[in-house]
Amino acid sequence: MSIENNKEHMLSDIQLVKKCLAGKADAQELLYRRYASRMFGVCLRYAKNKMEAEDIMQEAFIKVYQNLKNFRNEGSLEGWVRRIMVNTSINYYKSNLKYLQTMDIDDVSHQESFSVESSDNIELKTLLNLIQRLPEGYRVVFNMYVVEGYSHKEIADALGISENTSKSQLSRARKALQAKIEKINAVCYERTA
Known about the structure:
Shape: globular
Oligomer: single chain
CATH superfamily of the largest domain: RNA polymerase sigma factor, region 2, helix turn helix motif
């Protein structure tokens, strides 16, 4: 690593933000390089595929640069950037919502839980792939609730759906993932037996 490269990596988030706000292209590039791989993972959880995740991330980084002046150094820069990635992913979903059908089901049982034990035998990459294959509504609600920690009320408000729809989408997402994981584990078991 060159001395110049090493200096760049030693920049604190505050120094990096100041340089970006001063219009330094190298600082903007460093900001992107510092967070791109982790933020791509965030976008990938919400997207159907890598190409869609790349589009979402590109749009989100544009928002990061446009709104950097609003970063108040309350919490981490990474957390702030992550929030923009999540919000951009949600907005992407909402803009495509008119093409999707959702159902509001009042009588969904909310007792099911996503079993960690059954997912122990599969790789994270496989689990991410299974989440990406969920229907769009299931995938977005699952990510918002399970990964990001939103409440059903917050999800409902963000997506313009009812809380019951959020709950039913989560329940169905969990059931679908559980079934897919059980199928994978059964195949793995058959191969080892």
